[in-house]
Amino acid sequence: MPEPYFAVEKVSGSARLGRLRTPHAEIETPVFMPVGTVASVKGVPQEIVEELGAQIILGNTYHLYLRPGVETVRKMGGLHGFMSWRRAILTDSGGFQVFSLNDLRKVNEEGVTFRSHLDGSSHFFSPESAMEAQIGLGADIIMAFDECTEFPADRERVRLSMEMTARWAARSKKYFEEHKHKVPWRQWSVASGQWPVSESPSVSPPKDSGLTGHRPLTTDHCLTQSLFGIVQGGMDRELRRESALRTVEIGFPGYAIGGLSVGEPRELTREIVESTLEHLPKDKPRYLMGVGTPQEIAEYANLGVDMMDCVLPTRAARHGLLFTSEGKVSIKQARYAQDAGPLDPNCSCRVCGRYSRAYLRHLYASNEVLAQVLNTIHNLSFYLETMRRVRAGIAGASA
RNA sequence: GCACAGGUGGGUGAGUGGUUAAAGCCAACAGACUGUAAAUCUGUCCCUCCUAGCGAGGUACGAAGGUUCGAAUCCUUCCCUGUGCA
Length: 399
What we know:
By secondary structure, this protein is an alpha/beta fold. About 40% of the residues lie in helices and about 20% in strands. The protein has helices at about 45-50, 60-65, 70-75, 80-85, 95-100, 125-135, 155-180, 185-190, 235-250, 265-275, 295-305, 310-320, 355-365, 370-395; strands at about 5-10, 15-20, 25-30, 30-35, 55-60, 90, 105-110, 110-115, 120-125, 140-145, 225-230, 255, 285-290, 305-310, 320-325, 325-330. A hairpin with a 2-residue loop joins strand 7 and strand 8 (about 110-115). The two termini are about 35 Å apart.
């Protein structure tokens, strides 16, 4: 089994350039991962998400478990087959929902009882069941089941929460190691090195994307899922350190920093990220969960974060907030009603290359679905381009 | 011409004597959004003034009069709209 699948290729200050090998794709880091919670990067078809250069996207265990159900996805060849995404996928465990579905959940040592936001039905998630679900969904990288601690929280609460997350991490790993062979694509990917055709007739075989940096599945890729651990510890440096040590002691091929961007001041986020990174192994990928603005992702990448995801570009786009080289543009504003210029003159995306601000504003005002599509394409393009620049910057820096 | 039904703030539409400058929705304008309960949420939305507030004036429910301490609400006349009958 090709276990050493993350390679740091260059270090420049605290920043690193790396290569992360997953069953479905090799990823250049630092990387931004668009969020596609329900197996959809809202508003944008897979082929365009590919074209924009996304190397890996996120799915969410809780949402997909509720609908369409893990078994359905599993039968369709896992998320890759189901949504016809040929590159890498990472699923969040549902730990974030322990935080965000505050009113709809109950936590105890064993796990979390959720009331479905769809129909109110009751469901139980434990580290074990979250792993079972994530194995069934078949993402390349899956996450330990954690509790994303709320902010603010007193120190004792943060400590207890962090300690439970650590125990859950051990349980997650144990279950994963015992069951990871059940991943829906393993058998055929090992055997044939390609996508299942007979098992899943509705899924077309992959065509080469033609994009540089993307390598189709080959047999020298890592062929099993990877489980990442998550560091918690709130806004307390000492608890963060302890959480990192405990998580590293359990041992994972990658480590995430969770529990940030939950309402705390930005400076505090940066401070905690910086101090937590010190306690994470340098030879493993480090994933900062749920962050941030374009400036922030560049900043964190330069601090040594290898992976980031955030709903901001996609959600903000749907709400009319667009990120540009000059900051941000609220495209719904009246001032753009007759603005014939491109959204961002310095952006090379297909939206900026073709449409005017006046048109984008009109689409938004008219509540056209196309507004969401174009806005999301631009924002994702901007984020992904931001990370390409960061990588180029690290690559070009004199060591 | 006659008979019904109506005319409310940018639109729609509640409100039929007193916490009504007038609900709600829409539009408009502004803001928020960071491991997605999010095509969502919040605020403003008659005018003027200020010590900026459950503040002070003014104007306002087709028009003009009237009843009343008090009227978008009741009465009279007129104007207009819709439907039906001529």
